[in-house]
TrEMBL record:
One of its GO terms (molecular function) is 5-amino-6-(5-phosphoribosylamino)uracil reductase activity. Residues 4-187 form the Bacterial bifunctional deaminase-reductase C-terminal domain. Coiled coil: none annotated. InterPro entries: DHFR-like_dom_sf (IPR024072), RibDG_C (IPR002734), Riboflavin_Biosynth_HTPR (IPR050765). The lineage of its organism: Bacteria, Bacillati, Actinomycetota, Actinomycetes, Micrococcales. This is Dihydrofolate reductase.
């Protein structure tokens, strides 16, 4: 069964974006970028990968899941940010008419995210990338098999948390690797501990 991987940038105080969804404070230059763009090439937006000459191979991820607010960051300019992946966008209030123009490989759904992810996990293929945001991550917390956190040396003070407040129940993960870069970015990877 394939994994659901929450791969995301996060500030030192635990935010994945500012209060209005801003993420431009996260550093996109520095020695960490080569590592990330090589290992996680599938997570680079298609239009950016084209410009940078990055070839997403589908070997890490072949599917991405996200909430409406994550998709909305690129609208109306980029209605299908990861055209090279199967994209599932969750919203109970938005419809296809809210996505302008062509949006290949993108499915907007009001289905229960847990049911959709469980279905996707049962299919053959590469890992499934949980792109964001914090509310969707909270809903899918019990389905997350791996966390890859790109911690930047920033304090946001407010914003969208890594996980939105939800029903408290500890979930144990085990660190399997951490790399610190001269840029100050630290990439840490964790896998879910098996239930006792």
């Amino acid at each position: 069964m394939r994994e659901l991987v929450y791969y995301v940038a996060v500030s030192l105080d635990g935010y994945i974006a500012g209060p209005a969804g801003e993420f431009d404070a996260f550093p996109v230059e520095g020695d960490h970028m080569h590592h990330l763009n090589t290992r996680f090439a599938d997570a680079v937006p298609t239009h950016i990968a084209d410009v940078l000459g990055i070839e997403p191979t589908g070997s890490m991820f072949d599917t991405v899941v996200m909430g409406w607010n994550t998709l909305a960051v690129g609208l109306p300019t980029v209605p299908s940010p990861y055209r090279h992946l199967r994209q599932f966008v969750f919203s109970r209030t938005r419809g296809e008419a809210d996505i302008p123009g062509e949006h290949p490989n993108l499915t907007l759904t009001g289905e229960d995210p847990v049911e959709v992810v469980r279905r996707l996990k049962a299919e053959p293929g590469a890992s499934i990338w949980l792109c964001g945001g914090g509310s969707l991550a909270t809903v899918l917390a019990d389905e997350i098999d791996r966390l890859v956190l790109k911690r930047s040396p920033l304090l946001f003070g407010d914003g969208i948390p890594l996980f939105a407040p939800g029903a408290y129940r500890p979930r144990a993960f085990e660190e399997v690797g951490t790399t610190a870069f001269e840029s100050g970015v630290v990439v840490s990877e964790y896998v879910r501990r098996p239930s006792a």
